[in-house]
Amino acid sequence: MTAPTPLLSLHNISKRFGGLAVISDVSFDVSAGARMALIGPNGAGKTTIFNLVSGFYQPDEGDIMMEGRAIQTIASRHRIGLGIARSFQNIRLMPHLSVTENIMLGQQARAGGVVELLKPLSFFGHSHWRDEAQALLKDMGLHTYPGEVVANLPYGIRKKIEVVRALVARPKLLLLDEPAAGLNAAETDSLTGFLKRISDTGVTLLVVEHDMGLVRRLCDHVVVLNFGRKIYDGPTANVQNDPLVLEAYLGPRDAASPAKTAEGCHAA
Ligand SMILES: Nc1ncnc2c1ncn2[C@@H]1O[C@H](COP(=O)(O)OP(=O)(O)OP(=O)(O)O)[C@@H](O)[C@H]1O
Question: 48 C-alpha to center of ligand 1: Å?
Answer without folding.
Answer: 6
